[in-house]
Write a structure and sequence with these properties.
5-stranded parallel sheet
């Protein structure tokens, strides 16, 4: 079932409300307001711009809560040499660059370690990733992700396409996949997905991996859409996600 209009309205109207949070070790136990980003040191609040710049995977510096490495990857748009796997990644609301910091960079690092950097191209989706985008259920980023998939396959027809996204980026994956019946991706991997529990069009269940941390109200039950530490914890799943991608694509 799609998110109700009331939930979507709550996502849009409250996503930019910032609590006066202290560092994680000193935070109050009071629950976070619905879908509000905590102002913990280093967390990329309000940075969701158009996708940054850079050359190839990890083209510009960045980082933030829970993640390591650059916040930008442009292998497809920069026409990097063809590689066995091409990951098209959509970051979460307000994350900076075009792959953010929570899981985008850690996934790239783990996948390169798993199969070798010579077998991985990585591209972020340069969509706004702003609060208003939640109500559009991937409508702003989905077409851009489709365009990047088409460009990747035009440049490298034999590459295995993997769609991936975090938080609002999960909505982008769901939206994009609906338009990929002619060129279905090899796999999809989503973290903290607001539509967790729904299938991804043109991706068999065996080729879909959803990560939903215990206590994450964005993807779990009850679906509170509160941003807690659980929703920011997906960097720890990078190795497991990379192993899944390697297995499904047959690249090792």
């Amino acid at each position: 079932m799609l998110l109700s209009n009331n939930i979507l309205l709550a996502l849009t109207t409250t996503a930019t409300a910032l609590p006066n949070a202290l560092p994680p070790t000193k935070r109050s136990a009071a629950p976070a307001p619905a879908f509000s980003w905590p102002s913990w040191p280093g967390f990329p609040v309000g940075g969701g711009g158009g996708g940054g710049s850079g050359s190839g995977s990890g083209g510009s510096s960045g980082g933030g809560f829970g993640g390591t490495g650059s916040n930008t990857a442009n292998d497809v748009s920069n026409k990097a040499p063809c590689k066995a796997i091409t990951v098209i990644f959509a970051r979460g609301t307000s994350e900076s660059g075009n792959i953010g910091s929570v899981i985008g960079p850690p996934l790239l690092k783990s996948l390169q370690a798993k199969v070798g950097a010579s077998d991985v191209n990585y591209q972020g989706v340069p969509y706004p990733a702003n609060a208003a985008g939640n109500s559009q259920q991937g409508g702003t980023g989905g077409p851009l992700m489709v365009s990047l998939v088409q460009q990747a396959l035009q440049q490298c027809p034999s590459t295995k396409i993997v769609l991936s996204g975090y938080s609002q980026g999960g909505l982008v994956v769901h939206k994009a996949a609906q338009s990929l019946s002619a060129t279905p991706p090899a796999a999809a991997v989503i973290f903290g997905d607001p539509q967790n529990g729904q299938s991804v069009a043109n991706v068999p269940a065996a080729d879909l991996k959803e990560f939903c941390a215990q206590g994450d109200g964005v993807c779990g039950t009850p679906r509170t859409f509160s941003i807690t530490s659980a929703h920011l914890s997906y960097g720890k799943n990078a190795d497991e996600a990379a192993a899944f991608i390697a297995s499904v694509t047959g690249v090792s």
